[in-house]
Amino acid sequence: MATPPLFEIQDLHVEVEGTEILRGVDLVLGAGEVHALMGPNGSGKSTLASTLLGSPSYQVTKGRILFKGEDITDWSTEVRGKAGIFLAFQYPEEIPGVPVVQFLRQALSARKGIDLSVLELRLSIMEWMGKLGMDPSFGDRFLNEGFSGGEKKRNEILQMAILEPELAILDETDSGLDIDALDVVAKGVEAVRTSRPDLGVLIVTHYQRILERLSPDRVHLLVDGRIRTSGGPELARQLEQEGYEAWR
User: How far apart are CA 20 and CA 60, in angstroms?
Assistant: First the structure.
């Protein structure tokens, strides 16, 4: 029996407050692959990312989401996270009073099903902070409180490294970053992929610039709630040069 793909979206239709946003999305992503989802504002990219994490604000009216061949369409966010699906948010929330290290301990303990100590985690956290160019004191700061945009995005990549997911969905992780911060984030994603070659990555983005650094296996164009075309990295370059108007 053939091994199912790591992740599959089948004819996905999604409504938000009675308005249909996604109108039949199909996508297959294999283990170790990097796929990019591009499209203009309002095309449904962030709706798809939130739906994949199981946000209750988004109602699936038709279609299925499969993870390692299992239908997870009705799974809660918590269950998806424990199963190995990670979402890096476009706008990470601040959580006052909870240090980064403590948050990571709780999240990894839930993911692994065992109660880890901060000491068990600290060495791994320090190693990854070094790879991501983060100050060691960062781990004792409250989660995202007072963080710059670049720090929030690096923290998301740190979480991705520590939690060891099998699928990572990066929702516009490159938005609002200058060139230096973008390089750090891209190198961080590559470092995580090097340590976990089977990690599947879906990058939701407006821009080609992060794709120049991450070399996606496939690029998908989402317009008006449907994937209009798919291709290799050359599609991202074409969209950068020509824009989205021809596909509207």
Answer: 10
Choose among 38, 41, 35, 46: nearest CA to 8: 35
| Helix extents (H) in 10-166 | 45-53, 77-83, 100-112, 118-131, 149-163
Ordered strands of the 7-16 beta sheet: 19-29, 7-16, 59-67, 70-71
Q: What is the dihedral sign for C-alpha 213, 214, 219, 223?
A: negative
Angle between helical axes of 100-112 and 118-131 (0-180°, round to 10): 110
- 201-211, pLDDT tens digit by residue? 998 887 777 78
Structure tokens at 27: 């996508």
CB 207 within 8 A of CB 178: no
Give me 20's structure tokens. Answer: 């249909």
pTM of the model: 0.87
- Is residue 177 within 8 Å of residue 149, measured between CB atoms? yes
Contacts of 168 (CB under 8 A, 6+ apart): 86, 87, 88, 160, 192, 199, 200, 201, 202
Q: d(Cα 76, Cα 244) in Å, to the nearest integer?
A: 34
Note the pLDDT tens digit of each residue in 92-139.
Answer: 565 667 777 777 887 777 777 777 777 777 778 888 888 777 777 777
- Computed on alpha carbons and rounded to an integer, the radius of gyration of the chain in Å comes to 18
Which of the four CATH numbers 1.10.1660.10, 2.40.30.60, 3.40.50.360, 3.40.50.300 does domain 32-56+77-247 have? 3.40.50.300
